Amino acid sequence: MMELVCPAGTPAALRAAVEAGAHAVYCGFADETNARNFPGLNFSRPELAEGVAFAHRHGAKVLVAINTFPQAGRQALWHRAVADAEAAGADAVILADLGLVAHTAEQHPGLRRHLSVQAAAANPDIINFYAEAFGVKRVVLPRVLTVAEITAINREIDAETEVFVFGGLCVMAEGRCSLSSYATGRSPNMNGVCSPPSHVVYAEEGDTLAARLGGFTIQKSARGAPAPYPTLCKGCFVSEGTTGYVFEDPASLDASDLIPALARAGVTALKIEGRQRSRAYVKEVVRSFRAAVEAVAAGRPVPAGQLARLSEGQAATTGAYAKTWR
Amino acid sequence: MQITVGPNQFFWDAASWRDFYARLADEAPVDRVVLGELVCSKRLPFYQAEIPGAVERLQAAGKAVAMTSLALITLKRERTLTAELAATGLEVEVNDLTALAHLPPGAAFSVGPLVNVYNEGTLGWLAARGARRICLPPELPPEPLALLAAQSPVPVEVWGWGRLPLAISARCYHARLHDRAKDSCQFVCDVDPDGRAVDTLDGQRFLAVNGVQTLSAACASAARALPRLREAGIAALRLSPQAEGFVAVCRLFRDLADGRIDAAEFDARARPLAPGGAFCDGFLTGAAGVAWSGA
Questions:
Q1: Hey, what long-range contacts does B283-287 have (CB within 8 A, 24 or more apart)?
Q2: Chain B residues near residue A171 by CB distance under 8 angstroms
Q3: A207-219, pLDDT tens digit by residue?
Q4: Could you tell me if residue A130 is inside a domain?
């Protein structure tokens, strides 16, 4: 059966995900060492140890995301996160920074290393490089690849692959995007945040609600209509007289129908985005996907349609997995 | 302070490409030139035959030359191109770590601004692996920048001029804006030799698209930050090619670096040459990247 890797933004979400059938959960410490550095989210050291114990009692694994890029002069914070994850009994750490991967391989050789989507390792040559140089066992593939390309990659590499199947969708190669810091000064790579709420302002203008990020108006909706969050790459823009979603519509990823194809492609694990999501959401998505991977493992079709209402109140897309998306 | 010319980010026809590098060789007071295709491998066949001549002419003019890797390597064809790059014998500028996997130990390479060098651990690892020079990512704030420059065993370069490379994607926005798929793009990005403006709903100048790449609309300029960068030990400024007036930009930077003009005069004379007509330098002051210290 394919491994289901589920988000745990809080200890309560971790327990909900494990009880709903997650084979593994991923989580991070409550600081800028991880890419979901949001207020009220993430784990203290004791909470992680308890979470690991709970997950292990239920036969599930815990993967600790330490997947931002350490700041010069403050690397010790990231090094300590790796050491503390190992001490807490984590089954693996998910890393993005080349220097941090090298450090972990050298200082914590017994700690399993996964390469984060933020490292943007998008072809067999670089994946094999990470596997050979640093003993990386699994790579979370960047969301720039088609299913056919993922199949080809798996034939050439000596590591497991993990792919995103549900939740928020980055349009750009992750870990290689400075749009957020250009507009707000805060970025996924450095601060673990993208298009942060601290820089969002909503303004009523007559019958219109304008949403601005860092002072840039990138969404407008009729008053009373649902107002999409002004995420930069899903904003509405004007280019040479054409108004529209230049980068991507406000859609979220749903690749549940592609699970059989991803299994045939040799993918080891399926990842669900959403550490910022509620416990109830996590429980429902995990339960649906566990049923789906069990069905696929038994040769049955993926149960249809039950996830639609959990998509971000909007359209769902299969993103880069279909070549036409490009 | 040295001046490096980064790889052209845009899609120009072969004649324009050839003329650009000929003028650079003959007229521009720069120390180092990185050329080759950074953004989209589909563009390369249109001007590939011009590259050897340009390399020769630049070298004959006394400029150091390096060849860039692509910024995002996924296809088999792109992997082959990367392997061939490593075999040319020229210094390779790594802008996707994949290129590193193809370089034999001891081969000359440098690290470009699209590799994530945010800290001393990564910088040290790359230097130990043989990197001869490292251009830091444009979004790096001033304190880490100074710290890395102070500790680096190899020369450190920063983004000095041009629309900032902010993101790279599998999706081609030029094709999307023309209702085409990437595979049938018909090379439409060639109509925008400095990128296509993407404004906000209130008409604010904000971004520019260039095929699969997203850039800032404003032109980054390190002119006002130059004294601090020099003090920090930065070895070189990187100027990014543009379709018009680039030799003049190179001369202005040379004059500024050599003290013949000051930052105010630089700004006044360079502004008409800036793609998008506006400056930004927020990344170099610790603000949002779009901010301009001269406002």
A1: B283/A181, B283/A182, B283/B138, B283/B139, B283/B140, B283/B141, B283/B159, B283/B164, B283/B220, B284/B142, B284/B145, B284/B158, B284/B222, B284/B225, B284/B228, B284/B229, B285/B142, B285/B225, B286/A185, B286/B141, B286/B142, B286/B143, B287/A185
A2: 169, 171
A3: 999 999 999 999 9
A4: yes
